[in-house]
Amino acid sequence: MKNGKERRRAEFEAMFRVLWPRAHRVAYRILGQVAEAEDAAAEAFARAYVSWRRVGSLDHREAWVLRVTSNVAVDMARRKARRPGGRAQETEAFEDAVADRVTLGTALASLPRRQREIVALRYLAGFGEEDVARSLGIARSTVKEHARRARTSLRELLGSKDGREDDEAVDR
Amino acid sequence: MKPSTGEPDPRPRRSVEEALELTYRRVRRIRLRRAMPTVAGALVAGVLALVLLVPGLGGDEVVDVLAPTRSTEPTPQPRDASALPHSTPTSPPTATTPPPSPAPTPTPVEETPASQPFQADCGKEYPKRAESPEGMEVALELEGHVFAHGEEITMTVRAKNVSAQPIRNEYSGPRADVWVEDDEHRIWMWSFGRVFPAVQSEETFAPGEEKTEVMTWKQQLCDAEAGEQRGGPPPPGHYVAHGGWTTTEEGSGGDAWWSNPVEFEIR
């Protein structure tokens, strides 16, 4: 029979095995680099593990981990953007490949926390509106409103020329 | 929002087992970081015990005994020391420099994890100030204007419907929040790093009705990187506290109705 600590560890590892690729994907979409995305995802899981008594009991613990993953990744993107010469040190090939994602990461960093979390869960982690609402404990209409505001801000920050089409696409 | 390029995202470089190992290494680092204040405290207690037990040492010589320890360790500095308000700019408080005190006791070494200085910063983007409704008045009260370094500070947020109509409000987490700012940063926020149960609730404020929330600040600080409150107390100086009462009202343009700012001092 497993004691409490072993049971918690087994629960955590079961969730980890299922969620790791998804957490990595969320971080990768923000950071654009595999190794950095692994670091961000690992950091989020580590924070979940040290607070597992609390986090493990949440109904939406997967969303909690993905939310923290996106926050960690956005912080990393923010630090990366601030680092003097950080971008200049990239090779040309990498530069083109990661440019959009670095821009997305820094753009996300400028959003209010709630909007950022909704963007991460809704568009990067692929949760439905209802799931995002349940995991954040807010009304579906609030998710919709925050997502709309976030899209407007991101469109301005990223300079999308076809924002209206984007809106229609993501609302479908 | 700009969608992804359409290409499939690359798979993680590490296997799941390797990623798990990486995660556990980070867990050990987090635990070590959290344990540092305790370790630092134990070291100080050990040195003090030595001072008291060894004949010939004591009184003013306490400082001499500690001096070599300080000189061999790099003095930790915040990443952005200028952001911390100091009442005495020529002597910025650090983990090894106690604030002015009548008794020269070197105990403040325990106050901040010596190996993990950080810039206290909760971010200022949340909650965004809501502009309506006109009928709601939110106020913040502190139990004084001057507090001791490290003293627990109680803050009360009051929300009152001053209109003649009932006001209905929805919540998706805590009803209220409080935060403290220095000259540049929001250094503490009650909700920072906390996990709230996903519960949707609502309540109605009758005309004239007032509701309150009471929070306490143990003078810990926001560590944005760790995503938690730790360390502290902040250096003596002047600070400003704000309170916010949560709203999800459509069209309010924000997340909370803000209170008046309340200035106070930590000595």
Mean pLDDT of chain A: 78
What order do the helices and strands of chain A follow? Answer: HHHHHHHHH
- What is the overall pLDDT average of chain B? 70
Largest sheet of chain A: none
Discrete helix count of chain A: 9
Task: Name the descriptors.
heterodimer, A: 172 residues, mainly alpha, 0% strand, globular, disordered C terminus, B: 267 residues, alpha+beta, 6-stranded mixed beta sheet, 3-stranded antiparallel beta sheet, 13 strands, 19% helix, 26% strand, disordered N terminus
Describe the SSE topology.
The complex is a heterodimer of chains A (172) and B (267).
Chain A: H1 4-31, H2 34-50, H3 52-55, H4 61-82, H5 92-109, H6 113-124, H7 129-136, H8 140-158, H9 163-171
Helix pairs in contact in A: 1-2, 1-4, 1-5, 2-4, 4-5, 4-6, 6-8, 7-8
Chain B: H1 16-53, H2 61-72, E1 136-142, E2 146-147, E3 153-161, E4 167-171, E5 176-181, E6 186-189, E7 201-205, E8 210-217, E9 221-223, E10 228-230, E11 237-246, E12 256-258, E13 262-266
Parallel strand pairs in B: 2-13
Antiparallel strand pairs in B: 1-3, 3-8, 4-7, 5-6, 5-11, 9-10, 11-12, 11-13
Account of the protein in words:
The complex is a heterodimer of chains A (172) and B (267). Helices cover 80% and strands 0% of the residues of chain A. Chain A is an all-alpha fold and 172 residues long. Chain A is globular, with a radius of gyration of 17 Å. Chain B has 267 residues and is an alpha+beta fold. Chain B has helices at residues 16-53, 61-72; strands at 136-142, 146-147, 153-161, 167-171, 176-181, 186-189, 201-205, 210-217, 221-223, 228-230, 237-246, 256-258, 262-266. In chain B, strands 2, 5, 6, 11, 12 and 13 form a 6-stranded mixed sheet that branches. The longest helix of chain B has 38 residues, at 16-53. Chain B is flat. Chain B starts with 15 loop residues before the first helix and ends with a strand. The chains are: A mainly alpha (172), B alpha+beta (267). The interface between A and B is large, with 59 and 42 residues.
